[in-house]
Amino acid sequence: MLDRNLLNYLRQDLAQYPAVALLGPRQAGKTTVAHQLALPEHSVYLDMESELDRAKLASPELYLGERLDRLLVIDEVHRVPGLFPVLRGLIDRARREGRRSGLYLLLGSASLDLLQQAGESLAGRIAYRELTPFHALELADRELSRLWLRGGFPDSHLAGTVSASFRWRQDFIRTYAERDIPQLGGRVGTDAVRRLWGMLAHQQGGLFNASVLARSLALDTRTVNRYIDLLVQMFVLRRLEPWHANLGKRLTKSPKLYVRDSGLLHALLGLSDEETLLGHPVVGASWEGFVLENLITAAGPNASAYFYRTSAGAEIDLLLRWPDGQSWAIEVKRSLSPKMERGFYVACEDLQPSRQYVVYPGVDSFALSPAIEAVPLGELCRQLASKAWT
After folding, report:
1. Within 13 A of 352's CA, how many CA atoms are on the CB side?
2. Is 301 helix (H, G, I), strand (E, B) or coil?
3. What pTM did the predictor assign?
């Protein structure tokens, strides 16, 4: 079993806050992390997909009120929205009795519902963390090619064979499309969502155009937007927003869309092994999405992520903005001898970032110019993590 980097931060949050929400996609390891945090003799675990556990909460204030001396772990908590006002009352009661932290660990697979429900009832009483699948900071650099091919979902990444990993991801996509998305998204067209997901995989990293997607899927733009929102909220799609600055230039205003897990991307495209991946036209976009997802994860929640593009061709793949006002401009190249296009230099002249990097698939860092450093993915992730937690 791999220890997740998030464990220490969750322990700190539980020591400071009455409630902590751990968000992330299904099968990313939230329940495993919860069991590592909560010893059975000092905690109670409830799964809101279990009819037996849901029955225990028929009178939630009574059941939970008798267990204020232990950590309550509530899995898939977004399925019981009426629970949050009860938790608020119990948290306030525990505070009066002298216990101000470590009461509830809430696990959820749908961000918007959980954030809205918790934000309305538990404001000032809850901290949020996101658990992604495995990422570059949790693995040795030599394992990154395997992480790129298989993705970071534990059952996929740790599968005994390439074919077993690929089959797990195909089953995961089918289950998500046929069961999880309809359960969390209300009335949705399962086939349409599956086709949209596949279309987005073919357009990995492309600019979002709802009208074009709607025509291709024979849907209206409102439905397409709703499905996109749903995939984003369920942590399987990243919507990377463009950076807007008052520079007197015509800037791209549409976001880019990325399938967040590279293993799911490859399964959606039918790319079962490294040879088929390397021969496919999406290989460059797949590598870019893989790098960006790991960098954004390493930068943590305090860094804001954007891309930058103007109509004149100035472009930065990833612009990270920090709370201290610094910005890092990052380009992604899948070449052992990366060369920068003029558009990157022009974009850096526009924005004047604090640091400029190009991520490439080599093993050594070196200067491309006085301002630009070429770095391996693992090294830049470690630099970002160091910046994020200082």
Report:
1. 3
2. coil
3. 0.91
| Contact of 263 with 157, CB cutoff 8 Å | yes
Residue-wise pLDDT tens digits, 108-167: 887 655 556 665 667 788 898 999 999 999 999 999 999 999 999 999 999 999 999 999
Taking CA atoms, 176 is separated from 173, 180, 271, in Å, by: 5, 5, 19
| Whether 178 and 246 share a structural domain | yes
Residue 295: what are its φ and ψ, rounded to 5°? -65, -45
The number of domains in the chain is 2
Q: Which of the listed residues 108, 130, 152 is the one where a domain comes to its end? A: 130
Q: Which of 114, 28, 111, 41 is nearest to 71 (CA)?
A: 41
Of 307, 297, 304, residue with least CA distance to 377: 297
Which residue segment(s) compose the domain that 162 sits in? 136-388
Tokens of 234: 């369920």
The CATH number given to whatever domain includes residue 22 is 3.40.50.300
For 56-103, the pLDDT digits (tens) are 988 888 999 988 888 999 998 877 877 888 888 999 999 998 888 999
